[in-house]
Write a structure and sequence with these properties.
CATH class of the largest domain: Alpha Beta
Shape: globular
Number of helices: 19
Bound molecules: 2-deoxy-2-amino glucitol-6-phosphate
Number of domains: 3
CATH superfamily of the largest domain: Aminohydrolase, N-terminal nucleophile (Ntn) domain
Radius of gyration: 25 Å
Strand content: 15-25%
Largest sheet: 8 strands, antiparallel
Structural class: alpha/beta
Distance between the termini: 29 Å
CATH topology of the largest domain: Glutamine Phosphoribosylpyrophosphate, subunit 1, domain 1
Length: about 600
């Protein structure tokens, strides 16, 4: 997720763009840049590092005079954060410049075609391909070049575009990435999100997919991708600036929970090609995958919980032995890594000290390490032998939600890739898994729409002392994450237990009214789960059950049931975790906790 801003009007553009970018740093902050038309040419300044670096480089925009320009704050997806990969990108003569938020999925094919036509590239980004493709189609008519490019690129994009031969205009276009357009008496604006321009105007237009916008200093014109003019109604923004950064959500955590359908889609879809799993970034041939005899998954916190799910999924679907370790344990227990072992480290930040140490320990012993990471160019991303990015965009809330959901998707894809190579699933079973994978985003959406019911239930427990989560198999992994979500933001003591283990001691803690959340998404364990519920109910527990639609028998034992849509049993975590995230969130909100920045915690634990 990146942030783009553009301005054309009667004021100096650079300071306005820098100010707008500063309101979008939550969308990405590993590098930034601007392109400003200075009266003769397009002047481009860009650098790796936070926006502050660009502000200092341009003396707050003073070294880039001009009344029209575009700017960008980057969250790297293709190409590590460095000066060259920063936006804006441009053609060889720097007469066309582009800033982009999104992912051009077919950029490699387009790049190869352009190279064959003599184009040279300086960066590793997908965006530079757009700049060069515009150059290829530009014969003096910007709209014609833009619409031709839109018919060639696939993927998601919000683009800001400048043509040196048209200094009195900016262009913008979007597909699947957000883009707002604004107008004030001093000029016209584009931005990835409202906070960037709220200081200048509250009158905005939300660009729809495949609309092209032509901006002049005093007017806007919207077109379809076939260059037909269209009229659009403006919207007046009532939010204040801070609320706008959260897109109207009360907390980043809630906003990020609601981004999960898109996060899952963004992580999943580029790796589903012709109903098959394609994970080029693995850099492993099928024979190498087939030769893997055991997988060690190593991580911390929620990433570890995703890893526990990964164990059940990889062993269940691909029948490959998996060992899961807490990174802080792995690095000191002198682990036994045998020939044919593969290590997978999972980390949202890519900077967690224990996980990085586990990666280094594994590599020092000569084992290949795959990193499942969200932050491009992070330490783990740089040191792993291969990387599967989760493409969740920047996650601001300390309590992870969307990155966790994306980690699950990466693990499902890996399991299916291994299963295909090891032939442990039939063609029919494989296709059924693909079908269920594709439905997850809409099912997550449906569960998120259920938030009022969860909020009402959560309000009954803001005074709770102890809350337990129990489950068997994958339901135990779900319980681990549900418990952590609750306790790390509400400060209520909570424990997750393998349901069959409770009777070996911890059940002594169950008192009258203790809330026990029983997760039961595995059909072959339904009865066992009900027995465990009866056990704790007999000791006074109040039972919240999370189970699949249709498992109504559970109502005999549970006091309150949340149903999740039917999906493959191995993907249940992606759905069951949604009500548990909402539960933890609303308990914390009800207690007045600082949900996005819980006490004692950091977003990335870069120390031991
Ligand atoms: C989860 O909500 C916590 N923020 C924490 O457990 C986190 O998952 C853990 O510190 C690992 O972080 P990483 O994914 O960045 O390595």
């Amino acid at each position: 997720m990146c942030g783009i801003v553009g301005y054309i009007g009667t004021k100096q553009a650079a300071p306005i763009i820098l100010d707008g970018l500063s309101k979008l740093e939550y969308r990405g902050y590993d590098s930034a840049g601007m392109a400003i038309y200075d009266g003769e040419k397009i002047n481009i300044q860009k650098s790796v590092g936070r926006l502050k670096v660009l502000e200092e480089l341009t003396h707050a925009g003073a070294t880039m005079p001009g009344f029209a320009g575009i700017g960008h704050t980057r969250w790297a997806t293709h190409g590590i954060p460095n000066d060259v990969n920063s936006h804006p990108h441009f053609n060889a003569q720097a007469t066309i410049s582009v800033v982009h938020n999104g992912i051009i999925e077919n950029y490699i094919a387009l790049k190869n075609k352009l190279i064959k036509k003599g184009y040279q590239f300086v960066s590793d980004t997908d965006t530079e391909v757009v700049a060069q493709l515009l150059d290829y189609y530009y014969k003096g008519n910007p709209m014609e070049a833009i619409t031709k490019v839109l018919h060639r690129v696939e993927g998601s994009y919000a683009l800001g575009i400048m043509f040196a031969e048209y200094p009195d205009q900016l262009f913008a276009v979007r597909k699947d990435s957000p883009l707002v357009v604004g107008k004030s008496e001093d000029g016209c604006f584009i931005a990835s999100d409202v906070p960037a321009i709220l200081k200048y105007t509250r009158t905005v237009y939300y660009a729809e997919n495949q609309e092209v916008i032509q901006l002049f200093a005093d007017r806007l014109q919207f077109y379809t991708v076939d260059e037909e003019p269209i009229e659009k109604e403006p919207v007046t923004i009532e939010w204040d600036a801070e609320a706008a950064e959260k897109a109207g959500y009360e907390h980043f955590m809630l906003k990020e929970m609601y981004e999960q359908p898109k996060t899952v889609t963004d992580t999943l879809m580029p790796r589903l090609k012709n109903n098959d799993i394609v994970i080029d970034e693995l850099q492993m041939r099928d024979e190498e995958l087939a030769a893997v005899k055991k997988i060690h998954i190593v991580a911390c916190g929620s990433a570890y919980h995703a890893g526990v799910t990964g164990k059940y999924v990889l062993e269940g679907i691909a029948r490959i032995p998996v060992e899961v370790d807490l990174a802080s344990e792995f690095r000191y227990r002198n682990p036994i890594l045998e020939e044919g072992a593969m290590v997978i480290v999972i980390s949202q930040s890519g900077e967690t000290a224990d996980t990085l140490a586990a990666l280094r320990e594994s590599k020092a012993r000569g084992f290949k390490v795959l990193g499942i990471v969200n932050v491009v160019g992070s330490s783990i991303a740089r040191e792993a032998d291969s990387i599967m990015y989760t493409w969740a965009g920047p996650e601001i809330a300390v309590a992870t939600t969307k990155a966790y959901s994306a980690q699950l998707i990466a693990l499902y894809l890996l399991a299916m890739k291994f299963a295909k190579v090891r032939k442990t699933v039939s063609e029919e079973e494989f296709n059924a898994l693909i079908f269920d994978l594709k439905r997850l985003p809409e099912q997550i959406e449906l569960l998120l729409s259920n938030k009022e019911k969860i909020q009402k239930f959560a309000n009954r427990y803001i005074g709770a002392k102890d809350i337990f989560f129990i489950g068997r198999g994958i339901d135990y992994a779900i319980s681990l994450e549900g418990s952590l979500k609750l306790k790390e933001i509400s400060y209520i003591h909570s424990e997750a237990y393998a349901a069959g283990e409770l009777k070996h001691g911890t059940i002594s803690l169950i008192e009258e009214g203790t809330l026990v959340t029983a997760v039961s998404t595995q059909p072959d364990l339904y009865q066992k789960s009900i027995s465990n519920m009866v056990e704790v109910k007999a000791r006074g527990a109040f039972i919240l059950a999370v189970t699949n639609v249709g498992n109504t028998e559970i109502e005999k034992a549970a006091d309150y049931v949340v149903y999740i849509p039917q999906t493959n049993q191995y993907f249940a975590n992606s759905l069951a975790i949604i009500p548990l995230q909402l539960f933890g969130y609303y308990v914390a909100v009800g207690k007045g906790c600082d949900v996005d920045k819980p006490r004692n915690l950091a977003k990335s634990v870069t120390v031991e």
